[in-house]
Amino acid sequence: MKNTINYVKTLKHFYLSFHLDSISVSDGGYLSSGDFYELGELKDKAVKLFGISTGTKLDQMFWKVEREGDRFVKKPLGGIPYLSVINVTGVPDSGKSILAEQFAIAQANNDYKVLFVTVESPAHFLYTSMKSKAEYLGADFSKVVKNIIVIDASANEEFRENPKALMDTMAYAIREKHTNTVVIDSITGLYEHREVMARQIVRVFFNFLKKWRQTGLFISQKRSTQGSESAEAAGGLAVAHIVDGTIVMDKKLIRDRWDVNLYRMPLGSVLRTIRIDGCRLTGHDSRTWIFEISPGGTINILSPLEEFVSRRRETKQNG
After folding, report:
1. Residues 68, 74, 77: CA angle, nearest 5 degrees
2. Which is higher by pLDDT, 90 or 192?
3. What pLDDT is attached to residue 240?
4. Which CATH number fits the domain 50-244, given the four candidates 3.40.50.300, 3.30.870.10, 3.40.800.10, 3.40.50.620?
5. What is the pTM of this model?
C-alpha cells in the first residue's frame, strides 16, 4: 500500500510538471504565465504534413488533400503523420508487436534513428526477432543494429513503476542518439496493474514525445471484456482519447458454416484485419482491410474486407 501511495505521489508531481505553468495570484484571481497567440503567429511553428513510413500498405492509407488548379487532389501521405503519436491496439497475437518491429526496421533501414522501449519482451529476444524480419524484408541489418536504440523496461522494474525514471532515460537516449521516432511496446505494461492511472500515464508519455519532437507508436493491449473491433484498450478509451490516431488490429477464427460460406476460408483458419479507427491530423482510409502474417513474420496488407469477400464469391460462382 505504501509503495502505491508513493507511486501516485511521484506520478502526480511529474504529471503536474508537464501540464502546469507557474501560477500567481493577483487581485484575488489566478493568472496563467502561459502565452496566447493569434493563429497567424503560429505559422512559423506549424508542423509540416508528411508521412513516416511503416514499411506496410498503411503508407498509402493516410493521405493529404492538395489543390491543383481548380480542384483538390488526394495524395498518399507515405506513412503515419510526422510527429504524430499513434496507438495500435488489438487482441492478443493480432500482430501489434510485428507491426511495431516492422515500422522500426523500415525507419532504421532508411537511416533514421529509432528508440524502441520494450516493456514485454526482453531485449535479447527483440534482437533475434528483428534480425529474422530484417532479412526477410531485404533490409540492411547493419543499418538496423546501428539505428535502433533499445531500452529494456521488461528487465527493469523501476522503469515500469516510475514514469519519471523511464522518461529521464528516454530523454538521454533521444538527446545522445538523435532519434526521430519512438516505439513503446507496450504502453499497457506501464500501468497493467493500476489501470485507474492509465489516462495520467498515457498523457505524460504523449506530452513527452511532443516535447522531444518524436513520431511515436504506442502498442496497447485489450482486456477480455472489450470489443475486439473497437479502439478501446486496457484503461478504457483513455489511450484513444489522448493520442493522435488509433489503428485497430483483429483476428477472427473461422468457426462455423456461416463463416466458411462468407469468407470462403477453411474451418479453423484465421482471418486477420486492420483498420485506421481515426486520426485527427490527416485524412485516412477508414475501411477494414485484410492482412496476413508472412512466413517470415512480417505484415502484408492485402485488400479491403469488402473486396476480399466479393472476390471469394466471384471465384465460387465462376468455379
Report:
1. 115
2. 90
3. 85
4. 3.40.50.300
5. 0.87
